[in-house]
Amino acid sequence: MEDDSTEFHDITNKTFLNKYHCISKIGKGTFGSVYKARYNKDYFALKFESKKKDHDLLEKEAKILDYLHGANIPYIESYFSTDEYNILVMELLGKSLGYYQKQLNILSLKTVCMIGDQVLSILEYIHDHHIVHRDIKPDNLCMGLNHSKYVYIVDFGLAKKYRSNATLMHYPLINKKRLTGTPRYASINALKGFEQSRRDDLESLGYVLMYFLRGELPWQHINAKSKEERNQKILQKKMEISSSKLCEGFPIEFEKFLDYTKNMEYTQTPDYDMLRNMLLNVMKNNNLIYNYIFDWTTKEEIKKRAEVEYSRKDGLIKKRYISNKSLFYSNLNRNNVNKNKFRNLNAYNNQHTNTNIYYSNDYLPIIKDKDLNNNDQVNAICSSACNIF
To answer: Domain range holding 265?
Structure first.
């Protein structure tokens, strides 16, 4: 995968639209650079795409983010263009998981399971909205800034629809396509040149989880004269190494996770609950508590969390705060949730001022209104009623 960040001059201390003042560069996206910016007392992430390139992917990414709107995906503040750049203004997040992995080298079993559980739920939400990400990797998974307990998926520059909204029919399985994504984490079928679907995002997640646990993957550090040769060598290595070999020394659930995703059919609907339960069983079997304390969580942050006002009611912990912008997307199939109960969380919150977050025994946040009974719970699902593609 290539990026065009070399097309950019340093724009630190420059102001756009007479309001967004760039403070520092914080990273690179698929086809552009990302800067931290300030407007009044608020901070945002500004993603820049050079107009010198023929592609116009940032506008597409903005539409996808607006369409998904929620489920621990960064929200959009605005999108605009200047003479030199297309600029996407969005929610500012915390550090990427790639950053933490580089600092710690190896992540603990507990941290990896909590990451996997959350990412699976976000991917389920994305897939339910007919989108595949196509570039799941550590640098595209970030912790929230104001919601530091939750993982976010970022960089939808390579995302696309995999099926029709109306018929739910998958688009044709095309072969001999150029690889889209990052070879290290790409699925075997993607490296073979096949059109990607839900299975490919999940297989990539499996490789990411093993990367966190192992510290590296066997197909890293491959020498090649060209990207095509490198991709072929990575493909060959991935096909040679069995899941049992890759996951040797770790709980068998990780082997089962990879075997399941690698053996999925192109149009097959993933069993997200089964995959989540694999990770939760690892935690249960190893006496690990799902308490959102990651390897990098500081004592100061734990103390700050403890200072949030809580009260007890009906055996549940009620937190007196709700974010209209972003909430962790809890499991679709739990508690008999009606997926289409409310199509827009912001509109729902505006109409229901008594809304609270309840943390159930399995630590999954669920939206619950004081006026609703126990059988009328709804998930924090944000979606668009219109088809923008």
So the answer is: 97-285
